[in-house]
Design a protein that fits this description.
Strands 1, 2, 3, 4, 5, 6, 7, 8 and 9 form a 9-stranded mixed sheet that branches. The chain has helices at 23-33, 63-70, 82-89, 115-124, 174-179, 212-215, 237-252, 271-293, 304-318, 324-345; strands at residues 11-17, 37-42, 57-61, 94-98, 102-104, 159-168, 192-194, 207-211, 255-265. It is of the alpha/beta class and 348 residues long. It is globular, with a radius of gyration of 19 Å.
């Protein structure tokens, strides 16, 4: 059974502003954003004033707001991590986050895609993580459960995270993009699927939506590379957070979907230069993935906050000695839960 329809006032759209002139971005997304409340978080390192056209219901947060609201903290909200501050201050049940280098995509018929509506559809229809349906999402129009799919599993579970994709500039890593500089993703695959239980995925924060009440505390800016940069190739904070939230969703019996909606991404940065910074992250993944695949959370961890605390302890114990970034990540995860609980306790 699908969940109750999501009301417009239950949604915040969070935009991390890494560039000052957002006029074209907002005008392109006007038809899809204007019904909702928006949270714009300005990169603390961005000096120029933001340029945002009229006609939107929004709040803008700057470095001064971050310092005032969060106070002294070891967590960095610089660069792409500024979006997490938007997750923190939101009071809505659902959050949709789209980067400021993304444009509305077109489907195979040439029609613009309403990414907001598709994310909402993904979150309001059940996920099916325990048994794979070969027609993908059985709740989409024109699809259903295939022969042999157990009826006892057809109710599915609540979907807590929707991971959209990208046309044009796919979210490749720096080595791949450097090796294939002209590689572009032009394939619009009209499909949504649930990621199976126990399968990890590299969640990109570029185009996502999630149930903030269910898993909000599990999306955090924790793992930072020693040579962290300002473009997507030079960070893995969202990859780390995304794999952690998938482990947590599996533990809590929640679902994760990927596929639609697509956005159209434009180029930002130099893959060859970024390779010098991201190579550390590429190597770390060889250690991170086996660790997370074997991570088991205790039954006493009944909320996302509980799960993050337990994962932080395990990260510190099992990975902390292998590389300082893991110890720092564990500390940041605990700090994030502390800040999150403080924010939740504040009146709206």
């Amino acid at each position: 059974m699908s969940q109750a329809p999501i009301k417009d006032n239950e949604v915040d759209i969070v935009i991390g502003a890494l560039r000052s002139d957002l006029s074209s971005f907002f005008n392109e997304w006007r038809a899809y954003f204007s019904r909702f409340h928006l949270i714009i978080v300005k990169d603390p390192d961005l000096k120029e004033e933001l340029k945002i056209p009229d006609g939107f219901n929004l709040n803008v947060y700057t470095k001064n707001d971050i310092d005032r609201i969060v106070g002294s903290t070891s967590i960095s909200f610089s660069g792409y991590s500024c979006r997490y501050f938007g997750f923190l201050v939101s009071k809505k049940k659902y959050i949709i986050s789209i980067d400021d280098d993304c444009h509305p995509a077109k489907d195979n018929k040439g029609n613009f895609v309403d990414a907001v509506a598709q994310h909402i559809e993904n979150l309001t229809t059940p996920a099916t993580p325990f048994f794979f349906n070969t027609l993908y999402d059985p709740y989409r129009d024109g699809a259903d459960f295939v022969r042999g799919y157990p009826f006892s599993l057809r109710n599915g579970v609540n979907c807590a995270l929707s991971c959209g994709l990208w046309l044009n500039l796919a979210d490749l890593d720096a080595p791949t993009q450097a090796l294939k500089p002209s590689e572009r993703n032009n394939r619009y695959v009209d499909a949504v699927l649930t990621v199976p239980t126990a399968a990890l995925l590299p969640v990109s924060g570029i185009n996502i939506a999630f149930d903030r009440e269910a898993v909000g505390p599990a999306l955090f800016p924790a793992l930072r590379l020693a040579e962290e940069g300002k473009v997507r190739w030079e960070t893995i904070e969202d990859i780390w957070s995304g794999m952690c939230v998938k482990v947590i969703c599996d533990h809590l019996g929640l679902g994760v979907k990927t596929g639609l909606p697509y956005v159209w991404r434009t180029d930002r940065g130099d893959a060859v230069e970024s390779l010098k910074k991201e190579w550390e992250g590429v190597k770390l993944m060889e250690e991170v993935v086996p660790f997370l695949q074997s991570t088991m959370l205790p039954v006493t961890a009944a909320t996302a906050e509980d799960c993050v605390v337990e994962m932080a302890k395990t990260v510190k114990q099992q990975l902390g000695s292998s590389n300082p970034v893991f110890g720092h990540a564990a500390d940041s995860m605990l700090e994030w839960v502390r800040i999150w609980k403080t924010m939740v306790s504040r009146p709206s």
